[in-house]
């Protein structure tokens, strides 16, 4: 068992240095878990750490999923087969630049529910989730012969609140459901006071200056074991920003300093993976910044699993310390499949009633009120007035296309400095349509309670407008009717097939397209946004393809100069 004596971790009675790397099973196709874990072990690490996102496992209240990308037990079993220990971080909040920080969107349907505190409704939802989740972990605890040596309580709570009752309740739930291995919290060095518990190990998250960080820990909780639970060796990217990198030697110098002092370390990230589908999160400080599809993170392994210069630096440091040299598995093959023509197309407006049941209400309903987690929502109402009117689009989250009588007028965003726009209504009776995109719920900080869609009624021409119709497009099922072709408005779905003779990793080049999503055999690879960057190509793991014919579909929101896609063998992060 992993225990603590004075300021040192012990494993089965012997002093132990945890050398760990973060891999999020839900960001990596299951067929590649073994490859990534083997590369982690080959570098010289002894432990893998993973978050457990609530919204992946309970996307709708009372509906639980633990297969495919959500096969938590399969991931733990694979780690155990390879002789690795596991650190589990079930949160319930994970941050991780993941949609809503891992919290399920349906929590936001209840306006009187408070997040991440000892509010009875929230605690009840958490308990009902843990009743299902935690028993799945118990067989894999070290106390039961499994690989899980430690479990985290909440996550960076000192950066959010000060509710010690809530933290104690989290601890109580873990213990109540049989989690009897070492428990810990993790926070930035300057946030540990409110994020820690007196009888639980306190660990730190940082990317540099370890000596100063651990001096702060020593002042707060003397004789604590030293562990950096998140050693930030890179950073995430957001749409409209640049690709973040960190010089390999600089990261390794900090790693070497901690290694020499026998500090326990978890690389965040060892392997970042991908924000498939609509699962990217967002940050909101001065402005709202949604995270890109790639979660490459400038990590030790790239998004597609190749060792980086940072990997080889760290491997050399670990080999020098241990005297053990391990062979690193080969990289996965990559192929350029060439161009595919997307010859079929259909407008979202042509098929809206075929793929979504309309909902009517006096006022617009948020996505959460419509029981919709992700994707797009179309709002429509009649404006029985004529003229050019001011519209306050503040309640629209996050980005929307506005149409009058079937004609596109403008695009608005919550990042617009001017929230009042002029909309012209030419007739005595006009149809106003607003298609809203959820670009990712905020995953950190004071804007965490981030509802999407139109979250309040719209103020138009100095009055509220009532009687709305709404269509939800979560796009969880992309078997769409392409035979209808009347409306030429965007968004537009495009479809084609590509023949594959040998399955391998590849990348979709979106040159000539603007903004939207790509689907391969029904699997949503994620978002692209060519005009913003930095990501210009989407990673396609080989297991998503099959030998023979593969269906490719694109949802283009704004406009495209081509109807072909290129599958190439190299990525591009600008």
From TrEMBL:
Pfam families: BetaGal_ABD_1, BetaGal_gal-bd, Glyco_hydro_35. One of its GO terms (molecular function) is hydrolase activity. The keyword Hydrolase applies. Residues 491-550 form the Beta-galactosidase galactose-binding domain. Residues 8-315 form the Glycoside hydrolase 35 catalytic domain. It comes from the Bacteria. Residues 364-472 form the Beta-galactosidase 1-like first all-beta domain. Keywords: Glycosidase, Hydrolase. Belongs to the glycosyl hydrolase 35 family. PANTHER family: BETA-GALACTOSIDASE RELATED (PTHR23421). This is Glycosyl hydrolase. The lineage of its organism: Bacteria, Bacillati, Bacillota, Bacilli, Bacillales.
């Amino acid at each position: 068992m992993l225990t603590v004596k004075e300021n040192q971790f012990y494993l089965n009675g012997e002093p132990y240095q945890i050398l760990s790397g973060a891999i999020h099973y839900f960001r990596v196709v299951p067929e590649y878990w073994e490859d990534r874990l083997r590369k982690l072990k080959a570098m010289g690490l002894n432990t893998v750490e993973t978050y457990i996102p609530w919204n992946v496992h309970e996307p709708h209240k009372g509906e639980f999923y633990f297969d495919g990308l959500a096969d938590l037990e399969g991931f733990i079993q694979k780690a155990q087969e390879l002789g690795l220990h596991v650190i589990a971080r079930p949160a319930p909040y994970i941050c991780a630049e993941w949609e809503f920080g891992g919290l399920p969107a349906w929590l936001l349907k209840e306006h009187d529910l408070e997040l991440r505190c000892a509010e009875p409704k929230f605690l009840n939802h958490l308990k009902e989730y843990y009743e299902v989740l935690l028993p799945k972990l118990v067989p894999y605890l070290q106390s039961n012969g499994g690989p899980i040596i430690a479990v985290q309580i909440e996550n960076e709570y000192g950066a959010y609140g000060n509710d010690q009752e809530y933290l104690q309740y989290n601890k109580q739930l873990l213990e109540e459901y049989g989690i009897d291995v070492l428990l810990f919290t993790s926070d930035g060095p300057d946030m540990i006071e409110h994020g820690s518990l007196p009888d639980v190990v306190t660990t730190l998250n940082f990317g540099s200056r370890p000596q100063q960080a651990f001096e702060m820990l020593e002042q707060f909780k003397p004789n604590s074991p030293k562990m950096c639970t998140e050693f930030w060796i890179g950073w995430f990217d957001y749409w409209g920003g640049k690709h973040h990198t960190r010089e390999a030697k600089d990261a390794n110098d900090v790693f070497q300093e901690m290694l020499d002092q026998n500090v326990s370390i978890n690389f965040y990230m060892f392997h970042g993976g991908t924000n498939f589908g609509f699962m990217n999160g967002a940050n909101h400080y001065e402005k709202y910044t949604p995270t890109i599809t790639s979660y490459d993170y400038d990590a030790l392994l790239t998004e597609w699993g190749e060792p980086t210069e940072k990997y080889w630096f760290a491997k050399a440091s670990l080999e020098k310390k241990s005297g053990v040299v391990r062979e690193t598995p080969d990289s996965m093959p990559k192929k350029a499949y060439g161009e595919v023509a997307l010859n079929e197309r259909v407008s979202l407006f042509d098929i809206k009633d075929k793929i979504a049941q309309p909902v009517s209400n006096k006022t617009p309903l948020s996505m959460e009120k419509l029981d919709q987690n992700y994707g797009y929502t179309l709002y429509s109402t009649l404006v029985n007035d004529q003229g050019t009117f001011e519209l306050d689009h503040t309640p629209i989250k996050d980005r929307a296309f506005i149409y009058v009588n079937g004609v596109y007028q403008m695009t608005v965003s919550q990042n617009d400095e001017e929230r009042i726009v002029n909309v012209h209504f030419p007739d005595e009776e006009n149809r106003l349509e607003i298609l809203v995109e959820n670009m990712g719920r905020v995953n950190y900080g004071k804007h965490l309670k981030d509802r999407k869609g139109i979250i309040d009624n719209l103020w138009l021409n100095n009055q509220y407008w009532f009687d709305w119709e709404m269509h939800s497009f979560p796009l969880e099922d992309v078997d769409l009717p392409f035979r209808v072709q009347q409306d030429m408005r965007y968004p537009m779905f495009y479809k084609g097939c590509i023949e594959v003779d040998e399955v391998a990793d590849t990348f979709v080049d979106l040159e000539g397209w603007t903004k939207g999503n790509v689907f391969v055999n029904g699997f949503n690879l994620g978002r692209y946004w060519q005009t913003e960057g930095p990501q210009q190509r989407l990673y396609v793991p080989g297991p998503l393809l099959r030998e023979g014919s593969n269906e490719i579909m694109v949802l283009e929101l704004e406009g495209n100069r081509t109807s072909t896609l290129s599958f190439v063998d190299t990525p591009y992060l600008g």
